[in-house]
Amino acid sequence: MRFRPNCTGRGAAELERVIAAGGVVLFPSDTVYGLACAPDDAVAIQRLYALKGRSAGKASAVMFFDLATAFDALPELGEKTRAAIARLLPGGVTVLVPNPERRYPLACGDDPSTLGVRVVDVPALTGASVAVLQSSANVSGGREARRLDEVPKALRQGVDLVIGGGELPGTSSTVVDLRGYEQDGSWSIVRDGAVAELVVSAALNGQYHFDPATYETMMRAELPDYEVLQNELIAACDGLKVKRILELGTGTGVTAGRLLERFGDATLVGVDESPAMLAAARGVLPAERVELRVARLQDPLPDGGFDLVATALAVHHLDGFEKADLFSRVRHTLGRKGRFVMADVIVPEQPGNVVTPLTEGYDKPSLVAAQLHWLGEAGFSFASVRWQRRDLAVIVASRGR
Length: 401
Known about the structure:
With 401 residues, the protein is α/β, with parallel strands linked by helices. It has 13 helices and 17 strands. It has two domains: 8-205, DHBP synthase (Alpha-Beta Complex), CATH 3.90.870; 215-398, Rossmann fold (3-Layer(aba) Sandwich). It has helices spanning 12-20, 42-52, 67-73, 79-88, 153-158, 181-184, 197-205, 215-222, 226-235, 254-262, 275-282, 320-333, 368-377; strands spanning 8-9, 25-28, 33-37, 61-64, 93-98, 114-119, 132-136, 161-163, 174-177, 188-191, 244-248, 267-272, 290-294, 306-312, 334-345, 382-389, 392-398. Helix 12 links the parallel strand 14 (306-312) and strand 15 (334-345).
């Protein structure tokens, strides 16, 4: 069958039509742009691999566009493994699972006993019920594409359908080996990626796992000044004309909701590494004013021009080098008169002022002086402490005065 090259479209129906006809699709996932074809079509798979210059012996994940479809396609998955997958997916994770029925053998490469599985939540493909073999839209070994224009021209011209999805987070999925999980609860990270190991551990071991339903109550219990901190963050935005907001660590949407209320004409891009938390945020924030992305703070930030970058109780999970790097990237994503407002846990000068419960290895607060120094090194023209009480502080930095 012949196809029109560079046929640009959107939607699940177009994807399913082209996949069923033996075509190859360039599409947006929840991490990077990818190539997809039918997982049982040897000719289509050979063509996809040829576009990438990829060895036929290498395995590729099978992707589903909702969790129920994945579970229906893999009925032999054990109860514990299903529960683990449901805690990780949809999201920026690829799971390796046992494949006793040798399903999707053309996707398994040289090891038919193992299957890689992805489940994504992609607005442009909502409702797609087809399974696809997928691989990143790059030349094998090359850089993953965040935007369509970063996909090599030969790949864009060589596929049968191009589905745009705007700018994506840009970090490939974390690969988690669950092949031993059913028997003894064991798991391992095969490849670092979009979802941090601590988040995977939270889902699989119960550590550092925030329940969206109880998160707000927990924060208020552990931080008596939580409400004051939120109020001071909003007050630190006074004097700004704000149309575009970037929020880092959106969580369940509490701070985002306050920012949108304060700036009634603004839109907000929210970033968080937890799909579950963002799902809760979607339930309370106005969809027409908000775009929520699953990404880590260490990942590339959305394209710039923001009037305000705000964050509450998220940056303290980064170590010093990561904070300094984030501050530099924040400055570059701000508009010329933009402002960065950070409300967070800090290391107080007096040890007696440490009152916030911390988890070793997960919470990594820093001294205020160190953070002001890193902000200065990042190129902010002015940085100061707006408010501080015990081990909480609101720090404000301006790109231009």
